[in-house]
Amino acid sequence: MAKNITKKELKQPDQFVSFWTRFSNLAGRFLSERRKPVLIGIGGLAGVVTATLIYGEFHERSAIRASQALAHAEKVATADLVSADGATPKDDGVAHYKTDKERLEGALKEIDTFLAAEPRNPLHREAELQKAGLLLDLQRPDEAIPLYTELVNSRLDKSLRFLAQEGLAYAYEAKGDLDQAAAAFVKLGEVASPKTDDKADDGGKAGFYRDRSLYHQARIAERKGNPADAVKLYKEVLEKTPQSPLREEISNRLAALESK
Q: Long-range CB contacts (< 8 A, 24+ apart) of 177-186?
């Protein structure tokens, strides 16, 4: 079995948008897309409309509370650490910890508390996705894998499904199961490919994730000791998407492989 590797080794910040940034943006969009319009009823419809308004108001308030809870957990996970001399960072409304592990565990506790308190909240799945990411950051892939698996098989918003599928692949890689990681990265490309009857603009996400899917498949092939397969996959990315943001990284990897 291949050695375990850290998430930092899996994803370099200058190459990929962070999980937290992507998650926050998508969760914010989730809320804005689900705001219920104000309805005005007359006559015999008044009772139905009133009930709808009450439900809509409750639903939206619940979503807002959830968004705030998830944002607070993210803030805990990214808060400044207590310095070596014991100096505590300025008061910003969150607890501060001495180590990154303690900080991540603090954020995980926040998410678990939220999930236990509001199991029917409209952002429940998003909270589970955030939890899975924290488990992966904590080097607990065996716990992250079943959660990611459940998420990719659920009725998760299609934009968030990309993150769940990608997280599942990273979790298998962190565990050292390279065959499962490769299969999950292949699936990432399939998830990103638009359906034949779906003509809606995806903002370029599909192409972006197909690039990433092939890139990661090539990376895994390298780790498994299959340089020829890796070269083929890297070249496929450059041929199919010459403007890929991964172009420079792929070119460097190709040069290293072909010089051997």
A: 177/1, 178/2, 178/220, 178/223, 178/224, 181/220, 182/217, 182/220, 182/221, 182/224, 185/213, 185/216, 185/217, 185/220, 186/213, 186/217
- Give the tens place of pLDDT for each residue, 215-257: 999 999 999 999 999 999 999 999 988 888 999 999 999 999 9
Cα 256 off chain centre by: 30
Is 85 inside a domain boundary? yes
pLDDT value, residue 193:
60
Q: In whole angstroms, give the CA distance from residue 168 to residue 151.
A: 9
The Cα–Cα gap between 16 and 85 comes to 33
Q: Which domain holds residue 132?
A: 7-155
Q: Is residue 67 domain-resident?
A: yes
Total domains in the chain come to 1
Dihedrals phi, psi of 79, to nearest 5 degrees? -70, 155
More confident residue, 64 or 50: 64
